[in-house]
Amino acid sequence: MATETEETAFTVDELAARAGVTVRTVRFYSSRGLLHPPVIGPRRVGLYGAAHLSRLALIEELQHHGMTLAAIERYLQQLPEDLSAHDLAIHRAVVASWAPEGADEVSRAELERRAGRALSDGDIDRLAAMNVLERAGGDLDVFRLDTGLLALGVQLLDVPIAHETILAARTVVLEHTRAAAKELTRLFQDQVWGPYREREHDPEAVEAMKSLSAHMQPMVVQALVTAFQRSLKEELRARYTDG
Questions:
Q1: Is the dihedral of CA 162, 163, 165, 170 positive or negative?
Q2: Are the CB atoms for 108 and 143 separated by under 8 Å?
Q3: What are 172's strand-pairing partners?
């Protein structure tokens, strides 16, 4: 980190200008631990590097796709501490082309209007357990809503499944999909990003890599869905078929 920062050194004002955010935003992210501390240079001036700039871009990308700061903090905590600016560019490109669209911040009244029905506190908890929504900050009546999942989530409200079962199922799904995502990201980095590392300072290379990522998405998603459907069918057949 220090070497990279020394090669490309920005003051906080220069970093904010390059990232297109305010100095206050940079300092706020730093206070939340989303940005690594700067290297202290001559005259005790904090100096930031390319990795800080890439990390800021990644944070902005995640926010653009509807993630709360708490969710972004959890996401960044899973990344290795020594990621370079170029490795962070990989994550940003993957997020930009793979993250689900349609995250809206809505009031409870608007949520019920879109759901087409009144929602009890228990319904809200069940929708949250299904990752359809999450409460935005500390406001109990403002929600970050995944519009693509709302219709299915509302249908499932009337299915007699215990809330605890939904939470347990979500844990299983998250555990295994996270493992698959980690392996796919490693494969993506080794096989897709590798050819572009020679041109790592060329913005066009990052855009080309982002395009490749977007083209890979439907293939990988379909493969995951198909594999899960087949595995589930085989598991159910083995468990409930006599003999």
A1: positive
A2: yes
A3: none
SS3 135: strand
Residue 45 lies in a domain: yes
Question: What is d(CA 54, CA 60) in angstroms, rounded to the nearest whole number?
Answer: 10
First to last CA, the chain: 60
- Give the integer Cα–Cα distance in Å for 146 and 129: 13
For residue 68, which phi and psi values (nearest 5 degrees)? -75, 165
pLDDT in tens, 186-239: 777 677 666 655 555 566 666 666 666 666 666 776 777 778 778 878 887 787
Residue 126 CB neighbour total at 10 angstroms: 22
Range of the domain at 39: 1-99
For 15, residues 6+ apart whose C-beta sits below 8 A from its C-beta are 26, 48, 52, 53, 56
Of 64, 32, 29, 67, the closest CA to residue 48 belongs to: 29
Alpha-carbon distance of 238 to 10, in angstroms, equals 61
Residue 230 in any domain: the answer is no
Residues 69 and 21 occupy one common structural domain: yes
Residues 8 and 92 in one domain: yes
Whether residue 190 is contained in a domain is answered as no
pTM recorded for the entire structure: 0.46
CA distances from 13 to 9, 50, 175, 226 (A): 11, 14, 40, 49
**Structural domains in the chain (count):** 2
DSSP 52-117: HHHHHHHHHHHHHTT--HHHHHHHHHTS-TT--HHHHHHHHHHHHHHSPS-EEEEEHHHHHHHHTS
Q: Which of 120, 137, 160 is the last residue of a domain?
A: 160
